[in-house]
From TrEMBL:
Domain DUF6533: 16-61
Protein name: DUF6533 domain-containing protein
Transmembrane intervals: 13-30, 50-67, 79-98, 110-130, 155-179, 199-219
Keywords: Membrane, Transmembrane, Transmembrane helix
Domain of life: Eukaryota
Matching InterPro entries: DUF6533
Lineage, top ranks: Eukaryota, Fungi, Dikarya, Basidiomycota, Agaricomycotina
Species of provenance: Lentinula raphanica
One Pfam assignment: DUF6533
Length: 288
């Protein structure tokens, strides 16, 4: 039995969005490759490097499978790719959590809050997948492996809210630390902290996920997979940009240490860093 015209149009829109964000993902990889080679490939292996490669390259697998299925209109692995995309994002969130832990001078209390929230939210998302995935598979089979799903997936909905909850925890901690620095010092130090630590990426990721969850809730049921690709791609891009930004700033800082006695003319607009001891060993200047 064929699909209704409205359903076919919805499937086409989802396919266009999926292919478009795959193209965006590839484009961002090309323009970031130079920074990646300099600051990631040539660095020593560690947790951040492993998480970076996971966040940068594993989403390619999901995006390619999703794009191929959308183009062929035969989604044999739709539920699997959606769940795997959520798993990728959940692991990628560890980058944000480790950065937040570092911003708080490796506070054990903050580490406990972050770990507890990640474990609880991951457990909720995992429970939802095992609890409601059978419904998704039965829905897929009833439509002859079509990409059109007539009802919302409870597993996807709960997973979205779990991811959003994790982002809220890290973003609120980051915002609180920024306000604390502002109260104890002045606007210049708070601004230099936001720039130096790449905190503006936190404030970009959270609104993005809120918008995606809102669209998921308000859109017709046929569009329930519309936000899978934007969420996977934008989360990966912003997390990788955060890592590259922090390492690039660290490299510039090391370069300034080597040339601190030179007579170079400084740019007109600079911000002097009076950050806490865990950020700077002495007063530094950061270019904005």
């Amino acid at each position: 039995m064929g699909l209704k015209p409205e359903a076919s149009e919805e499937l086409q829109i989802v396919a266009y969005v999926t292919v478009s964000f795959l193209a965006l993902f590839i484009y961002d990889w090309f323009i970031s490759l130079t920074q990646e080679v300099v600051h990631i490939w040539h660095s020593r292996w560690g947790v951040i490097k492993i998480l970076y490669f996971w966040t940068r390259y594993v989403p390619f697998i999901v995006m390619i499978i999703a794009a191929q299925e959308r183009i062929s209109s035969m989604c044999n692995h739709q539920t699997l790719t959606t769940v795997f995309a959520g798993f990728i994002i959940g692991i990628s969130d560890l980058i944000l959590m480790l950065r937040t832990y570092s911003i708080f001078n490796k506070s054990r209390r903050v580490l406990a809050v972050i770990c507890l929230s990640w474990i609880v939210l991951s457990a909720i998302a995992t429970w939802a997948v095992f609890r409601f995935s059978s419904e998704s598979f039965s829905s897929d089979s009833s439509t002859t492996n079509s990409c059109f799903v007539p009802q919302r997936s409870k597993a996807v909905l709960i997973a979205f809210f779990a991811l959003l909850g994790g982002e809220c925890v890290t973003s609120l901690l980051t915002a609180w630390k920024t306000l604390d620095i502002y109260r104890k010092s002045h606007f210049g130090q708070a601004l230099s902290t936001i720039y130096h630590e790449g905190l503006f990426y936190y404030f970009m990721i959270l609104p993005t996920e809120i918008a995606i969850v809102t669209v998921f809730l308000l859109s017709p049921a046929g569009f329930q997979s519309l936000m899978d690709s934007p969420l996977t791609v934008l989360h990966s891009i912003l997390c990788c940009k955060l890592v590259l930004h922090v390492r690039e700033i660290a490299a510039k800082r090391d370069g300034e240490d080597e040339d601190e006695d030179s007579d170079e003319v400084l740019p007109a607009f600079i911000i002097e860093g009076f950050g806490p001891s865990y950020m700077y060993e002495k007063r530094r200047q950061y270019y904005v």
